[in-house]
Amino acid sequence: xxxxxxxxxxxxxxxxxxxxxxxxxxxxxxxxxxxxxxxxxxxxxxxxxxxxxxxxxxxxxxxxxxxxxxxxxxxxxxxxxxxxxxxxxxxxxxxxxxxxxxxxxxxxxxxxxxxxxxxxxxxxxxxxxxxxxxxxxxxxxxxxxxxxxxxxxxxxxxxxxxxxxxxxxxxxxxxxxxxxxxxxxxxxxxxxxxxxxxxxxxxxxxxxxxxxxxxxxxxxxxxxxxxxxxxxxxxxxxxxxxxxxxxxxxxxxxxxxxxxxxxxxxxxxxxxxxxxxxxxxxxxxxxxxxxxxxxxxxxxxxxxxxxxxxxxxxxxxxxxxxxxxxxxxxxxxxxxxxxxxxxxxxxxxxxxxxxxxxxxxxxxxxxxxxxxxxxxxxxxxxxxxxxxxxxxxxxxxxxxxxxxxxxxxxxxxxxxxxxxxxxxxxx
Length: 427
Ligand code: URA
Known about the structure:
Elements: H1 3-11, H2 18-29, H3 35-48, H4 52-63, E1 79-83, H5 91-101, E2 106-110, H6 120-125, H7 136-145, E3 148-152, H8 159-169, H9 177-190, E4 195-202, H10 211-227, E5 231-238, E6 246-247, H11 249-260, H12 267-284, H13 288-300, H14 303-314, E7 327-332, E8 337-342, H15 344-356, E9 370-373, E10 380-381, E11 386-392, H16 398-407, E12 409-412, E13 422-426
Parallel strand pairs: 1-4, 2-3, 4-5
Antiparallel strand pairs: 5-13, 6-9, 7-11, 8-10, 8-12, 9-11
The structure holds uracil.
């Protein structure tokens, strides 16, 4: 068997055997297959796709490429959530304490920002003192004792995904259903939770641009998880507009806190309660209406807020006195009319340009940088009216970010149709 033959076979739209998939997953992880051959194969997969059997084989081989976490000490209560990535997506910061306050056990591994999308690890690191690395024992004890521990991807878990993902990032091979399914589900299976809820996003700020592909992606991930003995659910949610009002690391922590305090309601709270309800329904084995009510009560009673503080302090966080950015710039509407569309990817990129994301792997993040969105899709604005505020620690970054933000806003005389935030729930 050679890599040349495998690439040629996929180029000709043929189904690869399990042995062939093992050959390239294991060979590439060990450094025996060069990047140029793996890139050619990845592009052939993007163009010609994979059958469900091929995707399942690739996912399991990637999951088994490194350590598999054993969370069996948490019994049936272990529960994880994964978002396919979005802009302003701070749901983990809200959902995790809600679920833990209601009795679920979250031992979660989260990622850093990727492209225009933010990452939970970067958001948590904007809290002074917060430790994103815990020893294996501390991680497990914290999950057992307070029901909630979140760490960054560490150690030798899914090394196949680490290598393949880094190559996809620079070879325009990210937006492929088989490659996304195997990447996400290999990590979720290796991370060990019995119950898994996926938040599959679609729209201009997501990797899947339309709801139909997001639904197919969600269904395939649910099927693979179930085949591997996990209880699965997925929500297909709208990322055609940023989630909530703030984008940027410290800003999003503040917004999450205000949701948990009951001060911020609306769509962000709504999607967090729905995700929490799906997670609680799976891990506590209760119906979804009862689970939704439990999640609501946890916010209303302050139990979720207390759990948030307990979690942050258990991981070394020194209170949530997050500073404001030294520089702020108002963005004014260029025309009168309805905000008809927001190109959410461009809005995420504007936040990145202000310093909220890394430009290179080793870049430092400006945790205070980001955007406050005052007017969103469907709102009527007058020319010159303030529609957003940009924040940064380096005021020379405003120009480019402002241009990027405005290029992502389309104003028209007619109002757009209102799209629901949650398109579908798959169980
Ligand atoms: N998130 C992942 O972890 N992998 C993908 O391929 C896409 C989003």
